[in-house]
TrEMBL record:
A 1,2-diacyl-sn-glycero-3-phospho-(1'-sn-glycerol) binds at residue 139. PROSITE patterns: LGT (PS01311). It is an enzyme of class 2 (transferase). Catalyzes the transfer of the diacylglyceryl group from phosphatidylglycerol to the sulfhydryl group of the N-terminal cysteine of a prolipoprotein, the first step in the formation of mature lipoproteins. InterPro entries: Lgt. This is Phosphatidylglycerol--prolipoprotein diacylglyceryl transferase. It comes from the Bacteria.
Length: 263
């Protein structure tokens, strides 16, 4: 068993304001995606300026934050937030939904693409390889918050999390998600996009890989207490929301390569 590193969730306490690691992870994720996007900008569209990219990053970040928070409220714990709406603002305690943030990114991208004379999937294919940076940083934030831990385990790397009332050694599922949704997904998309790909293919591969990785980790992750398992004694909300992603991803890749073959 590994000892859980006792990291204070508050990175900096200035007295009048506290800066939490969870929030800093979002800034790191957005900043890293911005840096990588700037490096890929000329290949995407040499006419785009850094100001255009800055606008894109801003609106996509708003989609992530607003969509992620509202998605968590709607998908995972609506009754608690209806009872106490002020909880919605307490984002430093966690409570962000990837699938809600993903919907927010889709909406922001559709709006921005229309303003810039791009198609939706042209822009989504550009954005998709950037997303794992934010996903990986967010999972590190979950780990520091000692939230979203896994089921009890006797594996050598199991950990006892301070937020666990049972104090059992558990799968560090946040680190599994960091490795899969962050590192592995980044490498897969980075290698795939080294060559030109048909429009929609990169978006499709992202959806397939993320959905598959999320479903796998959910088998060893404890579901949200207020929801539990939805069916069959194992189906979680994360898995339910990821299944359509995989189906849509497969469809996008099939359509992308069929269109390329027909061209």
């Amino acid at each position: 068993m590994l000892a859980y590193p006792a990291i204070n969730p508050v990175a900096l306490d200035l007295g009048f304001v506290q800066i939490h690691w969870y929030g800093l992870m979002y800034l790191i994720g957005i900043g890293g995606a911005w840096w990588l996007a700037a490096r890929r900008l000329a290949a995407f569209d040499p006419r785009w300026t850094r100001d255009t990219l800055s606008d894109l990053v801003f609106w996509v970040a708003m989609g992530v934050i607003l969509g992620g928070r509202l998605g968590y409220v709607l998908f995972y714990d609506l009754s608690s937030y209806l009872a106490n709406p002020a909880l919605i603002l307490q984002v430093w305690k966690g409570g962000m939904s990837f699938h809600g943030g993903f919907i927010g990114v889709l909406l922001a991208t559709a709006w921005f693409a229309r303003r810039q004379g791009k198609t939706f999937f042209e822009l989504m294919d550009f954005i998709a390889p950037l997303v794992p940076i934010g996903l990986g940083a967010g999972r590190i934030g979950n780990f520091i918050n000692a939230e979203l831990w896994g089921k009890a385990s006797d594996l050598p790397w199991a950990m006892v999390f301070p937020t666990d009332p049972q104090q059992l050694p558990r799968h560090p599922s946040q680190l599994y998600q960091f490795a899969l949704e962050g590192l592995a997904l980044f490498v897969i998309l980075w290698l795939y996009t080294r060559k030109p790909r048909p429009t929609m293919a990169v978006s499709g591969l992202f959806a397939i890989c993320y959905g598959s990785f999320r479903i796998l980790v959910e088998f060893v992750r404890v579901p949200d207490a207020q929801l539990g398992y939805l069916a069959f004694g194992w189906l979680t909300m994360g898995q339910l929301l990821s299944l359509p992603m995989i189906a849509v991803g497969v469809l996008l890749m099939v359509l992308a390569y069929r269109r390329q073959a027909a061209a």
